[in-house]
Amino acid sequence: MTLFKLKNDRLLETILKQEKVMALAGSMVAYEGSVKFEKALLGGEGLLGVVKRKFTSETVDLMVCKGTGTIYFAHKAKEVSVISLEGEKLVVESSNLLASDDSLKTDVAFAGLRGATSGQGLFTTTLEGIGSVALLSEGNLIMLEVSSSYPLCVDPDAFVGYKGNVRQEFIFDVNWKTVVGETSGETYQLKFTGSGVVYIQPSERQKPQS
Amino acid sequence: MVAYTLINEKMLAVGLTRERVYAKKGSMISYQGDLRFQRSFLAGGGIQNLAMRQATKEELLVMSAQGTGQAYYAYNGLYVTVITLEGETMYVESDSLLAFDDRLRIGTVFLGNQGAIQGMIKGVVTDQGLFTTRLEGQGELAIVSHGNAIALEVEPQKPIFVDPNAYIGHKGQLQSQLVTDINWKTLIGKTSGESYQLKFVGAGAVYIQAYERETQP
C-alpha cells in the first residue's frame, strides 16, 4: 500500500517503494528518486471502463507514476484531502480526483440525472478496496454524515463524493416562480439517504458556458 | 534596517527608516508615514541588467517606496513567504518576486542548459522562459505563491526534480538542468503531462508552489 501524506493543505506527498500510483495527468510538481511517469491508457478499470468513459465523455486524464521515491502532487492550489478506504466504496466526481492507490479497483458509475443540469457528466468514478485516495476541493473538504433517519440534501455543484451505504436521488424544486425565472438558485438538489458520509466543498463549480 | 513582517499569510508589511524597498508593480495596498512611490526601471540591477531583461523578455515590473513608514503589500490573494539570505544566492521567478531591498544585489540569469531542444522547450512549454532573477547578499526578500510555498531540501546524493510550472525559486549551492522525457509516446501525444523537469543537484533548497502555471500556446 502506498503512503499518502499531506505536506501542507494543498500539497500531497506520496512515497513509493517499487509501487504504482495513479494521478491526474500533469499534477506532479516535484519528485526525488527514480520514478517514471506515463499516460494511463487504462485507468485501472480495464477496457470496459475506457469504453464507458469514452461513451459518457467522462474524461479524466490520468497518469501512472511508478518506481521508488517521493512524489509531490498539487493542482491549481486547490485543497487536498486524503481518504483511506478499508474495503469500502467511494464514489467521486472525476474532476475532484487527484491521486489514488493502485491497489484500489476503479470503475465508472452512472450517477443519475444530475449531470444534465450541472454539466458534470452523467458518470462518476468509483474506487473500491483497501488503500488511499487524494481528493481536490476548493476550500476545505467537508464530511457530512448521513444516517437512515437523517437524509441530506446537497447542491450538485458543491458535491464531491460519498462513501458507505448511501443512496442518491435527484430532487427538483420547480414551481411557478422557477418557471418564470425567479429561482433561488437552489432548484436542483441531490438527496442522500442510508448511512455513510458525503463529501462537499464550500464552492460551487462554475457551469460551463453554453 | 528594512523590516519585513507578515501581517497574515497573504499580507506583508515593510517598515522603512529612510530606506528604500522595491516591490512588484501594483502590489501596494496601503501605507502609513512619509513614503514616496515611484516606478522603478533599474531596481538595483543597473543598466546592463535592464538591457538583459529587455532582450530576454524576463520582465520585472517594480516600483520603489522610499522614506520612513510602513508599506503594506499583497498580490491577488496569493500567499506570501519571507526568505532570509545569509550571503547565499537565490534564484526566483520574476512573477513570484514580491519585494526586496537595496541590501540584495539583483540580476538576470539563464537557468537550464543551452541547446536547440531546450530553446524550443523554453518557448513552447513553460512560456515563462527559463531566465530567472538572481538575488544575492545578506537580507530578506518576499515571494508570492499559489498556496503556501514549500521549501524542499536538496542533499548531494539526493537530486530533486521539479515541474517548471510549479517552480518558484531556489537557493544554495545548486546546479540546475532541464531534463526531458521525450519518447515516441510523447511525440504521438500520449504524454503523462510530465515530459519536462528541472533537475537540481547539490545542497540547498528548492521552493515550489502547489500550482502549475498555465502554459500558453
Automatic annotation (TrEMBL), chain A:
Pfam families assigned to the protein according to its UniProt record, in alphabetical order: AIM24
Source organism superkingdom: Bacteria
InterPro entries for the chain: AIM24 (IPR002838), AIM24_sf (IPR036983), Trp_RNA-bd_attenuator-like_dom (IPR016031)
SUPFAM superfamilies reported for this sequence: TRAP-like
Full protein name: AIM24 family protein
Native organism taxonomy: Bacteria, Bacillati, Cyanobacteriota, Cyanophyceae, Spirulinales
Automatic annotation (TrEMBL), chain B:
Pfam families assigned: AIM24
Superkingdom of this protein's organism: Bacteria
Protein name, as recorded: AIM24 family protein
